[in-house]
User: Fold these one by one.
Assistant:
Number 1:
Amino acid sequence: MERTLNFDVVRRFVRGPVISAQAGWPIEGAPVTVLFGPSGSGKTTVLRALAGLDRPDSGTITFDGETWFDSARAIDVPPQARRVGLLFQDYALFPHLSVAANIGYGLHRLGRAAREARVAELADRLGVSELLPRHPAELSGGQRQRVALARALAPRPRLLLLDEPLSALDAPTRELLRGELRQLLEQALVPAIVVTHDRLEALALGDRLAVLVDGAIRQVGPVHEVFSSPMDVEVARVVGTENVLPARLVRREGGLVVVRTGGPSGAELVAVDPGGVEDETYACIRAEEVVLETDDRHASSAQNRLPGVVAARRDEGPLSRITVACGVRLVALVTRASADRLELQLGSPVSAAIKAPAVRIVARRT
């Protein structure tokens, strides 16, 4: 029988949202699943319900064939019996305890020798052995993260839960530690669930993505698959598809569809036919997939080439976010060096080139 985590829970907040989340996925192979969505979508509520820290109003939670929660049968297994490891966004290390004491905090049932051996084992695995005598105030952000992860792993949890694990760090440190945290999670050999609203963290940390919209899980799948192929417009917006354009199906031809967006004076786009789409649609295009050209003599394989002008430019570090008015308003993300080389300024003539596979067509709900 396949080892899985399954939950179908409802949590109602007085004068607040209703979280109604249902999903399930395999846990074999210790994958990392990212709970992804905007603030207030219910990510932390789901995480706390899985940990046993927050009791749903109704529903069920099962892990590896064991029932952790069942409102109908009055089952609510306490957090310690679920054997779940928790890593909070502020790491919650005890400032008055040494690193060794922090890691061994959950091992009070072990004898002293066994506890010290387990602390030494984890400290060696996570590269913090030399830090054992220190206190949290003496550690860097990355060191605190490693110590907090060691503490969460010390009792040998069956599931590891991380709530915005990088949000407490400054941007340069966060960028540096993304890859390191992924390696640590792989080494842990424990299935993990990471809560984040950061797209780059989701891409860097996760094997699987579960997208929450308005308290409900709308799509679950491999990270890159969900980001590149959102199942509907709400998911497209949440995962950061900058261009979500209302469109109408014009015709089908040779496995492709032609849609018109922006009304009679708008633009036609060619896309791969997803099937099952009729009439009203959305055309979803990631900003990275929009190529800007100022010289029509440079031919490419892109089937969509929309002439227009630069309507806005916003520099974001090494990148520039360019808005092009071309019958519709398209956002493109290019390097700042490319934007300077093409002299992309307000009013500059430019063409937006988009390959057909980069235009994701999803049905518009009526």
Note: Residues 171-188 form the longest helix (18 residues).
Number 2:
Amino acid sequence: MTPIRPIALTLLLLLIAASCFGLEIRLRELVLAKGDMVTLGEVAELDASAGRLADLRLLTSPAPGQEHVVSVDRIKTDLLQRAPDLGEILWSGASSVKIRRDSMVVDQPVIEEILADYLHANRGFLPQARISFKALRFPPTFFLPRGPLTTEVLPSDPQILNSRRFSIIFRIDGVTVENLSIRGELEAIAPVVVAATELSRGGVLSSRDLNLVEMNIVGLRNPCFELDELVGKKLKRSLRQGVPLDRGTVEFPPMVARGELVAIILRHGSMELTARGEARQDGQSGETIRVRNNASQRDILGRVAAPGIIEVEY
């Protein structure tokens, strides 16, 4: 004979007790369901003698944020299917139960906050500017199940600033429950050095030739933010009044010189490795140059991030 497990024996004894003395089930009018299934203890108030019957799973919950109404007949049928040995039951309370699924609302303000938090967390990789995301269109409001929520934001461009789309992955208890994509663009407002007048190629810049003007720097290549770093430099090409100056417009000493020993920072997602190498080309800030990895003796392409530092995404 197969032995009866303690849990099964306890439920059996409760069913026997219920059949002997009767069980009163008082239905509630409104239930806020927590999980995918609704239990007997959620839809009804039970006598203390019911014990573990409260954990009996009766009905499938609505989708997060939705609700439906269940009649007492449906509850009786489902209960008897799952516990056919129950004896006499005294039914009381509501004649039907409205079941509403507990949920978290995800609307435009929530999405804006997620993106703002992401930009704040990555401010070290972004220019010193007032940065905001302007969506072309936000998705309709939707609902997620209750639980520990984490989000992951993926920009369409690893450099972030030039991204035209952001994907947001929503996870509850580590399980992906929603994945949405939002099209738009970043706006980064910062004071930028522009030509104060018509400037000719070969001219040496003075403070009178330059102005600081606030503008959106998205799409600008290596804009200059400090007047002092340009004064005394020679122009490589002519500029019209109001045109922003970038670091390629004037003659700068290279930030990284050919033959210089550099640190190569290799990034892949959240993983980061550092190697030693040698610059094979001169490079200004933000330019992509060839650099040789000393360990592998292979040439790779990397972006000049700072003096002596080359960043590589792979």
Note: The helical segments are 6-21, 40-43, 72-82, 108-121.
